């Protein structure tokens, strides 16, 4: 049924037709697997539900998978978000109002940018705390969106130790790199 009549050359030998049909089926299977891999690499997948569709937005930072978030969208009577697992500090309703009715693809892209930036900032703060805890004076202070990080650390010179404090601000909610850094000694 999947094959239809595509790519199957008529042949006098039944074995040749079976080999050809098998080749077409293998090609189609590889194509579907490649498409699924592409969706996986883009971090977006979805499936139909009885109300509409449920999308899974996978997040990563520099090749490290960090988790996924779900958005369940209804299509009738209008396109709207039914349920989701997006954190409350991500402006989901504003993004939905701006993009969802007209362009679902754009909505998912912008939402993915917000989520990836958030988990990237959170991951960086966790890594800072984990990898450099011996140099930090206390814990890394951060807000829930991780768009402000503050920490103190010590550097040693020849005979002295210099305490520094740093404050990183992330002005763009769709970026995982700071827009402003304030360092004091």
From TrEMBL:
Q: Which domain of life is it from?
A: Eukaryota
InterPro entries named among the record's database cross-references: CENP-O
Quote the gene name from the UniProt entry: Cenpo
Q: Which GO terms describe its cellular component?
A: Mis6-Sim4 complex; nucleus
Protein name (database record): Centromere protein O
Q: What is the lineage of its organism?
A: Eukaryota, Metazoa, Chordata, Craniata, Vertebrata
According to its UniProt record, which protein family does this protein belong to? Belongs to the CENP-O/MCM21 family.
Subcellular localization is given as: Chromosome, Centromere; Nucleus
Keywords assigned by UniProt? Centromere, Chromosome, Nucleus
PANTHER family in alphabetical order: CENTROMERE PROTEIN O (PTHR14582:SF1), INNER KINETOCHORE SUBUNIT MAL2 (PTHR14582)
């Amino acid at each position: 049924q999947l094959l239809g009549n595509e790519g199957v050359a008529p042949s006098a030998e039944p074995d040749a037709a079976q080999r050809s049909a098998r080749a077409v089926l293998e090609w189609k299977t590889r194509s579907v697997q490649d498409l699924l891999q592409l969706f996986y690499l883009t971090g977006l997948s979805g499936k139909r539900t009885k109300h509409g569709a449920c999308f899974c937005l996978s997040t990563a930072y520099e090749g490290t998978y960090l988790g996924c978030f779900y958005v369940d969208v209804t299509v009738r009577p209008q396109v709207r978000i039914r349920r989701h697992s997006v954190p409350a500090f991500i402006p989901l309703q504003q993004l939905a109002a701006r993009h969802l009715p007209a362009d679902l693809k754009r909505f998912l892209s912008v939402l993915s940018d917000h989520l990836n930036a958030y988990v990237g900032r959170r991951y960086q703060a966790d890594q800072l705390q984990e990898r450099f805890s011996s140099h930090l004076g206390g814990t890394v202070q951060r807000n829930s969106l991780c768009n402000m990080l503050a920490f103190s650390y010590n550097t040693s010179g020849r005979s002295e130790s210099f305490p520094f404090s740093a404050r990183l601000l992330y002005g763009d909610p769709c970026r995982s790199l700071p827009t402003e850094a304030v360092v004091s000694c």
